[in-house]
Automatic annotation (TrEMBL):
The keyword Membrane applies. This is ABC transporter-associated repeat protein. It comes from Actinosynnema pretiosum. InterPro entries: CHP03773_ABC_transptr-like (IPR022395), Surface-anchored_actinobac (IPR022435). Keywords: Membrane, Transmembrane, Transmembrane helix. The chain crosses the membrane at residues 280-297. The keyword Transmembrane applies.
Length: 306
């Protein structure tokens, strides 16, 4: 199967207001474009005040290896850094009083049942499953009481290393269902970044200086392990396991989930019955955030490696 490569880059897109989508608050995501300008201003302000600006600080806290945590609320970013001269992939945890960088293997992101929702009856979202089937969505826009994962290439330690992009790869997913990561593109059309329904590895290019969020979708409850890698243009790379627990049960069980045998990442190569919340409105509103900060994804096919 062909692997997929994309590009996430600043694009300076124009804001597009809408009134009809607000009048159709319960309609499918595909019929929602951008939100009203007032909402865009608020969304942009939220992102402007988010920890992205703090990433410029030269001194940042580093958690001790083996200090395991479950994060169920607040902002986190996956991103590369240079620590003690080594290129590493870490998670920036902003869920506490002070930001701290953690090893991905020491973290489980907990996805609550409150974000379970139905796949829209729209061909644009067929990649998520059959219309009406249940999925769990960590949305592109921040929501109360829900972890908000993103990715960034803003750490000062990687500035000036040469090249314009960081290659972000997904080597595989272990779990009870499928994983999808997509962005709301122009006019609300989804732009798939990674899809568990396709072959591995998959790859996307993330420009230096990027801070972005997407819709993280899981098709079944349980524990998942995502085998991810981020690589610099000079060939330095690091792989890590990002663990996620979806729905009820003990999220600490996800620490026991690993990637398939023979695919273990190496360090440094140099379910309730009723739905409590519906994330789709958040996703629709996130289109405004996407346009406000100017992130687009352009897809292209490259040769398969497996």
């Amino acid at each position: 199967m062909p692997a997929v490569r994309g590009r996430v880059r600043p694009a300076g897109a124009q804001l597009r207001g809408h009134d009809a989508a607000q009048r159709e608050g319960g309609c499918a995501v595909s019929r929602l474009s951008a939100a009203a300008t007032a909402v865009a201003v608020v969304a942009a302000a939220v992102l402007a005040g988010a920890p992205a600006a703090q990433a410029q600080a030269q001194e940042q806290a580093q958690a001790q290896d083996g200090e395991r945590v479950v994060i169920a609320d607040g902002h986190v970013d996956l991103g590369p850094r240079v620590v003690n001269g080594k290129w590493v992939v870490q998670l920036r945890d902003d869920s506490g009083a002070e930001p701290v960088w953690r090893e991905p293997g020491d973290v489980v992101l907990h996805v609550p049942d409150s974000v379970r929702t139905a796949v829209p009856d729209d061909p644009a979202y067929a990649f998520l499953g059959a219309a009406g089937s249940q999925v769990w969505v960590l949305p592109q826009a921040q929501g109360d009481g829900v972890v908000w994962p993103g990715w960034n290439t803003q750490d000062p330690s990687i500035a000036g290393l040469g090249g314009r992009e960081v290659d972000w790869r997904l080597h595989g997913v272990t779990g009870p269902g499928e994983f999808q990561l997509f962005l709301n593109g122009n006019f609300g059309e989804p732009e798939v970044v990674f899809s568990g329904a396709k072959g591995f590895p998959q790859e996307t290019g993330v420009e230096l200086g990027t801070h972005a969020h997407g819709n993280w979708v899981f098709s079944a409850p349980g524990s998942y392990a995502l085998d991810v890698e981020m690589a610099a243009s000079d060939g330095r790379a690091d792989r890590a396991v990002l663990r996620v627990h979806v729905g009820a049960g003990d999220p600490n069980e996800a620490f026991t989930v690993s990637v398939p045998a023979g695919e273990t990442p190496s360090s440094n190569e140099n379910a309730g019955e009723e739905q409590n919340q519906a994330p789709w409105p958040w996703i629709a509103g996130a289109a405004v955030v996407l346009l406000a900060i100017g992130f687009l994804v352009r897809r292209k096919v490259v040769g398969s490696r497996g």
